[in-house]
Amino acid sequence: QVSVINTVDTSHEDMIHDAQMDYYGTRLATCSSDRTVKIFDVRNGGQILVADLRGHEGPVWQVAWAHPMFGNILASCSYDRKVIVWKEENGSWDKMYEYTGHESSVNSVCWGPYDFGLILACGSSDGAISLLTFTGDQQWDVKKINNAHTIGCNAVSWGPAVVPGSLIDQPTGQKPNYVKRFVSGGCDNLVKLWKEEDGQWKEDQKLEAHSDWVRDVGWAPSIGLPTSTIASCSQDGRVFIWTCDDPAGNTWTAKLLHKFNDVVWHVSWSITGNILAVSGGDNKVNTSSSPGAEPSTEASPSSACVFCR
Fold first, then answer.
1. Cys-Cys link to 307, which of 123, 135, 205, 276 (CB 3.0-4.6 A)?
2. Cα–Cα distance between 152 and 74 in angstroms, integer?
3. Considering only CA atoms, which of 82, 92, 152 is closest in space to residue 120?
């Protein structure tokens, strides 16, 4: 059973495309086709508008909070081809950085694990993925993966910093192995895994199962266990769960989680990586207690589906 516990009147003047809670669950960021990003204080069930950020010149598709160890930092991406990094200083939100290196709409932004510092992945309709790394003194290093997805990239999601199983196998006193990895989904119907080697980003795996545009991907958080898990959803109405038990990360297995009757827009893992929320265009709310179970449905203005691992 899925129930509404709170609603927020955002006063956006057009369609809302994304809404993200911060690390502590006390602030909500929303973005809209009205070209604005709004931040609300949502503590104790209330809502107070604390910032109305205006800097984009087109619909804003997605927002992403950085880890709080870096302060209050939010990234946004837009149809206007721009990525803006906003930062709160003394209660006031201002632009920290503006990236204009893409030739088409920027559809997805995702911050990497805090272990790597401030690093942002950006996926664009121009087919490229940019990696923006804050190097200090208001400087950012930019690396670009051109032709990552033909026609365009719709989604990016970072993998955990720790190599699967390394927390279990690591000798006492030694640091676990860290690796920069992320997954992307595109208009070529593909899910792709990327890995940094010697300072360069290289395609690590190409996962094929979807028959239409991949709309979103989500790499599940890790608690150090040997298995890696990724969820993907598509215009084809299907949600796949990809798992890899191979320490080298070379062998991924796809399992069809569910086939919906409409496009599936988003997948999102819980912070412990054991619950997956899925939203789409079938105008229903679906819940399931296990990946293999048939979801139950309740009528709702938007679609959401929750699966437990």
1. 276
2. 24
3. 82
Residue 49 to residue 36: CA distance in whole angstroms: 13
Domain assignment of residue 30, yes or no: no
18-35 pLDDT, tens digit per residue, is 999 999 999 999 999 999
Distance of alpha carbon 118 from alpha carbon 54, whole angstroms: 23
**How many angstroms separate the CA atoms of 93 and 73, rounded?**
9
- For the chain, the maximum distance between any two Cα atoms, rounded to a whole number of angstroms, is 56
Residue 187 to residue 115: CA distance in whole angstroms: 31
Residue 111, domain member (yes or no): no
Residue 221 located in a structural domain = yes
Residues contacting 96, CB < 8 A, separation 6+: 73, 85, 86, 87, 138
CB 265 within 8 A of CB 277: no
| CA dist., res. 72 & res. 94, Å (int) | 11
- Residue 289 is predicted with a pLDDT of 39
Tell whether 199 is covered by a domain: yes
pLDDT digits (tens, 9 = 90+) for 287-299: 443 444 444 433 3
| Residues in contact with 258: Cβ distance below 8 Å, sequence separation at least 6, in sequence order | 238, 239, 278, 286, 288, 295, 305, 307
For residues 83 and 77, the answer to whether their CB atoms sit within 8 Å is: yes
Domain count for the chain: 1
Return the SS3 of 292. Answer: coil
pTM of the entire predicted model: 0.89
Angle, alpha carbons 86-92-95 (nearest 5°):
25
CB 184 within 8 A of CB 229: no
Containing structural domain, residue 231: 161-166+173-308
Scanning the chain, the segments in alpha helix (DSSP H) are: 166-169
Query: What φ, ψ does residue 246 adopt, rounded to 5°?
Result: -80, 120
Residue 37: left (phi > 0), alpha (psi -120 to 50), or beta? beta
Q: Which residues pair with 95 in a beta bridge?
A: 86
